[in-house]
Amino acid sequence: MNIVQSMDKYAVVTDTYFDGEKHHTSGPYTVVVEKGSITGIVKCDFSDDMIKKGISVKKTKFLMPGLVEAHSHLFLDGGQLDFTARNEYLNASGEEMLTVARANIAANLAAGVTLVVDAGDRYGVNHDIRLESGSVTVRSAGWALRRPGRYGSFMAREVGNRDEIAAAVREIGKDADDLKVILTGIIDFKAGLVKGEPQFDAEELRFIVTMARELGLRTFVHCSGLAGLAAAVAAGVDSIEHGFFMNRDILKAMADQGIAWVPTFSPVYFQWQRPEIAGWDVTTVAHLRRIIDAHFEHVAMAADLGVPLVAGSDAGSNGVRHGEALIDELDCFSWAGLPMEAVLRSATSLPRTRWGVDAAMLAVGQVADFITLAGSPFDDARYLHQVTVVCNRSTISSFPRGRMDEPASQNKIAVGQ
Ligand SMILES: [Zn+2]
Prior knowledge:
Elements: E1 3-6, E2 9-18, E3 23-24, E4 29-34, E5 37-42, H1 47-52, E6 56-65, E7 67-72, H2 83-89, H3 94-110, E8 113-118, H4 125-130, E9 137-140, E10 144-146, E11 156-158, H5 162-173, E12 178-182, E13 187-188, E14 193-194, H6 202-214, E15 218-223, H7 226-235, E16 239-242, H8 248-257, E17 260-262, H9 266-273, H10 275-278, H11 282-305, H12 324-335, H13 340-345, H14 349-355, E18 369-373, E19 387-392, E20 395-398
Parallel strand pairs: 2-6, 7-8, 8-9, 10-11, 12-15, 15-16, 16-17
Antiparallel strand pairs: 1-20, 2-3, 2-4, 4-5, 6-18, 13-14, 18-19, 19-20
Helix pairs in contact: 5-6, 6-7, 7-8, 8-11, 9-11
The structure holds zinc ion (ZN).
Zinc ion binds next to loops.
């Protein structure tokens, strides 16, 4: 259980911190928060002075901005592994779904996530939970767009010709924060590829992207397989989600155009880790392994080429638990070879600045939106799994025992085997 406090003025003393861009190592530092904003960061431990003045002080080894989960489905429980129960749940009441979404928000908070993007929900739970989520801010895409009869029924509405597309974008744009497009199907794990043509061609997709921009919405696009990736790049979308079966040419074009990539390792990784759940045979498991290995290589290549890499887990998918899955994505970025500063940027300043929301840097004048960890992830990446306090404006949520996961280990998903 977490302890929630509300404080007008407080201070945090830390050994080291990551400000959203850079790692600061010559502490201790005292960070002062007043009325929800950071009013001072000084290179000294002022806790005695603060305590004498009656100001509450928290001591920690490491401080960093609150994390961003760039791709999740808040109405779905990723921990529900039974396919029949998952299907039946799609007929649950709105209140029941909202209860699940509340638990998912709590799980995000416990993992240090303070900003979540919901990537599509036909039931409107994402819009509803956005209104009540407290220390965790939700960006909601509402309904996504898909072609009639194609993949995405649980999260997308069907659109046919351009008039229908235009009407749908206008309608969704009234209350969505971002526009989600289902461009391709999902991966056929048995065949080890993405089946079927993209749902929209490059010209139609460009029409959607242009219209969305006019309405002030970024487009993030569910897309795997080369045909879809080529269309997404040609249309100049803002972000490619999943992006399995990537290649170097697509990555170069993404880097040139500043298109972000949210590689969502988690749902495919889970299929590989627990093949018995879906009943995958040896051939399918080999496909999964090959797909994951290629994904690691392409993420490393993306980092080299300067593609903006953003962390998102697709939480809510089978086996992908809200909160902890985002940290698993950060582990995957580490294992792909990204330096820790780049790993942390992918879930803090980078998505926040791209989306034009509060940067939430650890700097004077910024909103107080930060987390403390039991130790520095620059010493050991496993500390990312041990969030101890989440400070959001004047609200402080403490997790006294930390959230102890099984320690992340590269063996969990041995790279290149
Ligand atoms: Zn998704």
